[in-house]
Amino acid sequence: MITAIVLINLEADSIPEAAQAIADLDGVTEVYSCAGDVDLIATVRVKAHEDLADLVPGRIGKVDGVLDTVTHIAFRSYSRADTDSAFEIGVEGV
Fold first, then answer.
1. Edge-to-edge strand ranges of the sheet holding 40-46
2. How far apart are CA 92 and CA 90, in angstroms?
3. Where are the domains of the chain?
4. I want to staple 65 with a disulfide (CB 3.0 to 4.6 A). Which of 18, 22, 60, 85 is the partner?
5. Alpha-carbon dihedral of residues 45, 47, 49, 55, nearest 10 degrees?
6. Domain 2-87 adopts which CATH fold?
7. What global pTM score does this model have?
8. What is the pLDDT of residues 34-92, one digit of tens each?
């Protein structure tokens, strides 16, 4: 599974509608509106690089109001939640 973080800049008046449209796309797991250099940050998870190539420019980039995207592909997760859940595999009643 490929995980990527997509930074998205939008036309200011389209943020709520664009955020929901992006969140509704297959492969998009989370969308956050945020302060800073970008308007939205989306987390995506797909099976193959080809799927990522289809999702970001092919679908996210075509949502009304999207001006540009920057995609960062994740190599490894260091999340405490991921580490904790790995040790719970096979443990019942936790």
1. 28-33, 40-46, 2-10, 66-73
2. 6
3. 2-87
4. 18
5. -50
6. Alpha-Beta Plaits (3.30.70)
7. 0.82
8. 999 999 999 999 999 999 999 999 999 999 999 999 999 999 888 776 656 655 666 56
